[in-house]
Amino acid sequence: MRRTVFNEDHEAFRETIRAFIAAEVVPVYDEWFAAGQAPRDFYLKLGELGVFGIEVDEEYGGAGIDSHKYEAVIYEETARAGVSFGGSGVHTLLGLPYIKMLASDDQKKRWLPKFATGEEMWALAMTEPGTGSDVAGMKTTAKLSEDGTHYVLNGAKTFITGGVHADRVIVCARTAAPREDDRRFGISLFAVDTKSEGYSVGRKLDKLGLKVSDTAELAFVDVKVPVEDLMGEENKGFGYLGTNLASERWGIAFGAYAQAAAAVRFAKEYVQDRTVFGKTVASFQNTKFELAACQAEVDAAQAVADRALEALDAGELTAAEAASAKLFCTEVAHRVIDRCLQLHGGYGFMNEYPIARLYADNRVNRIYGGTSEVMKSIIAKSMGL
Question: I need a surface site. Which of 117, 147, 244, 327 has the fewest CB within 10 A?
Answer without folding.
Answer: 147
